[in-house]
Design a protein that fits this description.
single chain, 238 residues
Length: 238
Protein backbone atom coordinates (compact mmCIF):
# COMPACT_ATOMS: atom_id res chain seq x y z
CA UNK A 1 0.00 0.00 0.00
CA UNK A 2 1.42 3.42 -0.96
CA UNK A 3 2.08 6.09 1.65
CA UNK A 4 -0.64 8.28 0.12
CA UNK A 5 -3.20 5.48 0.48
CA UNK A 6 -2.10 4.82 4.05
CA UNK A 7 -2.56 8.49 4.96
CA UNK A 8 -6.11 8.54 3.66
CA UNK A 9 -7.00 5.19 5.26
CA UNK A 10 -5.70 6.39 8.64
CA UNK A 11 -7.98 9.41 8.38
CA UNK A 12 -10.95 7.15 7.73
CA UNK A 13 -10.13 4.94 10.71
CA UNK A 14 -10.01 7.90 13.08
CA UNK A 15 -13.24 9.34 11.73
CA UNK A 16 -11.48 12.40 10.34
CA UNK A 17 -11.71 11.69 6.63
CA UNK A 18 -9.95 14.61 4.94
CA UNK A 19 -11.93 16.92 2.72
CA UNK A 20 -9.47 18.06 0.05
CA UNK A 21 -11.80 20.70 -1.39
CA UNK A 22 -11.23 22.14 -4.88
CA UNK A 23 -7.80 21.23 -6.29
CA UNK A 24 -6.35 22.52 -9.54
CA UNK A 25 -3.83 19.98 -10.83
CA UNK A 26 -1.31 21.57 -13.18
CA UNK A 27 1.30 19.92 -15.34
CA UNK A 28 2.98 20.35 -18.70
CA UNK A 29 2.30 17.85 -21.51
CA UNK A 30 3.73 14.46 -20.56
CA UNK A 31 4.03 14.91 -16.77
CA UNK A 32 1.37 12.28 -16.05
CA UNK A 33 -1.30 14.68 -14.81
CA UNK A 34 -4.11 12.40 -15.98
CA UNK A 35 -2.60 9.43 -14.17
CA UNK A 36 -2.29 11.42 -10.96
CA UNK A 37 -5.84 12.74 -11.24
CA UNK A 38 -7.08 9.15 -11.35
CA UNK A 39 -4.97 8.29 -8.28
CA UNK A 40 -6.44 11.21 -6.34
CA UNK A 41 -9.97 10.29 -7.39
CA UNK A 42 -9.41 6.83 -5.88
CA UNK A 43 -7.78 8.18 -2.74
CA UNK A 44 -10.27 10.89 -1.91
CA UNK A 45 -13.46 9.68 -3.60
CA UNK A 46 -13.95 12.99 -5.36
CA UNK A 47 -14.56 13.54 -9.09
CA UNK A 48 -12.16 14.68 -11.77
CA UNK A 49 -13.70 17.60 -13.63
CA UNK A 50 -12.29 18.08 -17.11
CA UNK A 51 -13.50 20.94 -19.27
CA UNK A 52 -12.87 18.82 -22.35
CA UNK A 53 -15.12 16.08 -20.98
CA UNK A 54 -17.76 18.64 -19.97
CA UNK A 55 -17.76 20.17 -23.44
CA UNK A 56 -18.10 16.80 -25.17
CA UNK A 57 -20.85 15.68 -22.77
CA UNK A 58 -22.88 18.86 -23.26
CA UNK A 59 -22.58 18.59 -27.03
CA UNK A 60 -23.53 14.89 -26.97
CA UNK A 61 -26.56 15.53 -24.75
CA UNK A 62 -27.67 18.48 -26.86
CA UNK A 63 -27.94 20.86 -23.92
CA UNK A 64 -28.40 24.57 -24.55
CA UNK A 65 -24.75 25.11 -23.63
CA UNK A 66 -23.69 22.22 -25.84
CA UNK A 67 -25.65 23.54 -28.83
CA UNK A 68 -24.09 26.98 -28.42
CA UNK A 69 -20.60 25.49 -28.18
CA UNK A 70 -21.16 23.22 -31.19
CA UNK A 71 -22.28 26.18 -33.30
CA UNK A 72 -19.16 28.14 -32.38
CA UNK A 73 -16.83 25.22 -33.05
CA UNK A 74 -18.61 24.57 -36.34
CA UNK A 75 -17.61 28.09 -37.41
CA UNK A 76 -14.04 27.44 -36.31
CA UNK A 77 -14.33 29.78 -33.32
CA UNK A 78 -13.03 29.21 -29.80
CA UNK A 79 -15.52 28.47 -27.04
CA UNK A 80 -15.46 31.66 -24.89
CA UNK A 81 -14.70 31.70 -21.17
CA UNK A 82 -18.29 32.66 -20.37
CA UNK A 83 -19.65 29.46 -21.91
CA UNK A 84 -16.99 27.25 -20.30
CA UNK A 85 -17.67 28.93 -16.96
CA UNK A 86 -21.37 28.09 -17.22
CA UNK A 87 -20.59 24.43 -17.90
CA UNK A 88 -18.26 24.29 -14.91
CA UNK A 89 -20.80 26.06 -12.69
CA UNK A 90 -23.46 23.46 -13.55
CA UNK A 91 -21.04 20.58 -12.88
CA UNK A 92 -19.97 21.93 -9.48
CA UNK A 93 -23.59 21.83 -8.31
CA UNK A 94 -23.72 18.05 -8.61
CA UNK A 95 -23.68 16.16 -5.26
CA UNK A 96 -20.46 14.22 -5.89
CA UNK A 97 -18.49 17.50 -5.81
CA UNK A 98 -19.55 18.56 -2.30
CA UNK A 99 -16.29 17.45 -0.60
CA UNK A 100 -13.99 18.57 -3.39
CA UNK A 101 -12.92 17.83 -6.94
CA UNK A 102 -9.86 17.64 -9.17
CA UNK A 103 -9.91 20.40 -11.78
CA UNK A 104 -8.33 19.37 -15.08
CA UNK A 105 -7.92 22.04 -17.74
CA UNK A 106 -9.75 24.71 -15.75
CA UNK A 107 -9.04 27.44 -14.82
CA UNK A 108 -6.80 27.68 -17.87
CA UNK A 109 -6.65 31.49 -17.94
CA UNK A 110 -6.36 34.22 -15.32
CA UNK A 111 -9.89 35.35 -16.13
CA UNK A 112 -11.24 31.87 -15.42
CA UNK A 113 -9.28 31.76 -12.14
CA UNK A 114 -10.80 35.05 -10.99
CA UNK A 115 -14.26 33.86 -11.99
CA UNK A 116 -13.89 30.57 -10.09
CA UNK A 117 -12.51 32.22 -6.94
CA UNK A 118 -15.32 34.77 -6.98
CA UNK A 119 -18.02 32.16 -7.50
CA UNK A 120 -16.82 29.93 -4.68
CA UNK A 121 -16.55 32.92 -2.33
CA UNK A 122 -20.06 34.12 -3.22
CA UNK A 123 -21.46 30.66 -2.46
CA UNK A 124 -19.79 30.55 0.95
CA UNK A 125 -17.36 27.81 -0.04
CA UNK A 126 -15.19 27.26 3.04
CA UNK A 127 -12.24 25.72 1.18
CA UNK A 128 -10.79 27.82 -1.66
CA UNK A 129 -9.04 26.46 -4.74
CA UNK A 130 -5.45 25.34 -4.27
CA UNK A 131 -3.11 24.63 -7.17
CA UNK A 132 -0.52 21.85 -7.28
CA UNK A 133 1.91 21.68 -10.18
CA UNK A 134 3.67 18.44 -11.17
CA UNK A 135 7.22 19.29 -12.21
CA UNK A 136 9.37 17.25 -14.62
CA UNK A 137 12.59 18.33 -16.33
CA UNK A 138 12.07 19.61 -19.90
CA UNK A 139 14.48 17.11 -21.47
CA UNK A 140 12.84 14.25 -19.60
CA UNK A 141 9.43 15.34 -20.89
CA UNK A 142 10.83 15.55 -24.41
CA UNK A 143 12.05 11.95 -24.15
CA UNK A 144 8.70 10.78 -22.79
CA UNK A 145 6.80 12.35 -25.68
CA UNK A 146 9.08 11.84 -28.68
CA UNK A 147 10.09 8.32 -27.61
CA UNK A 148 6.50 7.10 -27.37
CA UNK A 149 5.42 4.37 -29.79
CA UNK A 150 2.12 2.48 -29.99
CA UNK A 151 1.10 -0.92 -31.28
CA UNK A 152 -1.77 -0.48 -33.79
CA UNK A 153 -3.07 -3.99 -32.99
CA UNK A 154 -3.09 -4.39 -29.19
CA UNK A 155 -2.55 -0.71 -28.23
CA UNK A 156 0.53 -1.50 -26.13
CA UNK A 157 2.64 1.58 -25.45
CA UNK A 158 6.44 1.64 -25.53
CA UNK A 159 9.11 4.28 -25.13
CA UNK A 160 12.33 4.09 -27.11
CA UNK A 161 14.30 5.59 -24.22
CA UNK A 162 12.64 4.17 -21.10
CA UNK A 163 10.62 1.13 -22.12
CA UNK A 164 11.82 -0.08 -25.53
CA UNK A 165 10.45 -3.18 -27.27
CA UNK A 166 12.64 -6.27 -27.36
CA UNK A 167 12.93 -5.97 -31.14
CA UNK A 168 13.50 -2.44 -32.37
CA UNK A 169 10.36 -1.03 -33.99
CA UNK A 170 8.05 -4.00 -33.34
CA UNK A 171 5.53 -4.92 -30.64
CA UNK A 172 6.59 -7.63 -28.20
CA UNK A 173 3.08 -9.14 -28.20
CA UNK A 174 1.79 -8.82 -31.77
CA UNK A 175 5.07 -8.35 -33.69
CA UNK A 176 3.30 -5.49 -35.48
CA UNK A 177 5.29 -2.46 -36.61
CA UNK A 178 5.03 0.27 -33.95
CA UNK A 179 3.73 3.70 -34.92
CA UNK A 180 4.33 7.23 -33.63
CA UNK A 181 1.38 9.58 -33.17
CA UNK A 182 1.49 12.65 -35.39
CA UNK A 183 1.57 14.98 -32.37
CA UNK A 184 4.42 13.13 -30.60
CA UNK A 185 7.12 15.02 -32.52
CA UNK A 186 9.62 17.47 -31.06
CA UNK A 187 8.19 20.41 -33.01
CA UNK A 188 4.64 19.80 -31.80
CA UNK A 189 5.92 19.27 -28.27
CA UNK A 190 7.74 22.61 -28.29
CA UNK A 191 4.61 24.39 -29.53
CA UNK A 192 2.47 22.74 -26.84
CA UNK A 193 4.99 23.70 -24.16
CA UNK A 194 5.02 27.33 -25.29
CA UNK A 195 1.23 27.44 -25.28
CA UNK A 196 1.04 25.78 -21.87
CA UNK A 197 3.60 28.14 -20.33
CA UNK A 198 1.91 31.20 -21.80
CA UNK A 199 -1.53 30.26 -20.52
CA UNK A 200 -0.50 28.78 -17.18
CA UNK A 201 2.09 31.29 -15.95
CA UNK A 202 -0.51 33.94 -14.93
CA UNK A 203 -2.63 31.26 -13.19
CA UNK A 204 0.41 29.99 -11.28
CA UNK A 205 1.38 33.53 -10.29
CA UNK A 206 -2.19 34.17 -9.12
CA UNK A 207 -2.36 31.21 -6.76
CA UNK A 208 1.24 31.61 -5.64
CA UNK A 209 0.52 35.20 -4.59
CA UNK A 210 -2.45 33.93 -2.58
CA UNK A 211 -0.29 31.34 -0.81
CA UNK A 212 -2.27 28.52 -2.41
CA UNK A 213 0.31 26.96 -4.72
CA UNK A 214 2.76 24.06 -4.41
CA UNK A 215 5.11 22.15 -6.70
CA UNK A 216 5.63 18.39 -6.59
CA UNK A 217 8.49 16.38 -8.15
CA UNK A 218 6.94 14.36 -10.97
CA UNK A 219 10.03 12.34 -11.88
CA UNK A 220 9.24 9.55 -9.40
CA UNK A 221 7.03 6.44 -9.21
CA UNK A 222 3.28 7.06 -9.47
CA UNK A 223 2.58 6.29 -5.78
CA UNK A 224 5.38 8.62 -4.61
CA UNK A 225 4.03 11.50 -6.72
CA UNK A 226 0.52 10.92 -5.36
CA UNK A 227 1.87 10.93 -1.81
CA UNK A 228 3.66 14.20 -2.55
CA UNK A 229 0.45 15.77 -3.81
CA UNK A 230 -1.44 14.62 -0.71
CA UNK A 231 1.25 16.12 1.54
CA UNK A 232 1.16 19.41 -0.38
CA UNK A 233 -2.63 19.62 -0.15
CA UNK A 234 -2.60 18.89 3.58
CA UNK A 235 0.05 21.58 4.12
CA UNK A 236 -1.83 24.19 2.09
CA UNK A 237 -5.11 23.40 3.86
CA UNK A 238 -3.69 24.09 7.33
Amino acid sequence: MSSSTIAVEQGRETGSKPQPGPILLLGAPGVGKGTQAKELVKLWGIPQISTGDLLRANVARGTALGRAAKELMGRGELVPDSLVNEMVAARLKEPDAVNGYILDGFPRTLGQAHWLDGRLASEGQVLPVIAVSIQVDYNQLLRRITGRRNCPVCASIYNLFMNPPRRDGFCDVESAALVQRADDTEQVFKERMRAYAGLTAPVVDHYRALGRFAEVDGDRPIAAIAAGIVTAVERLRK
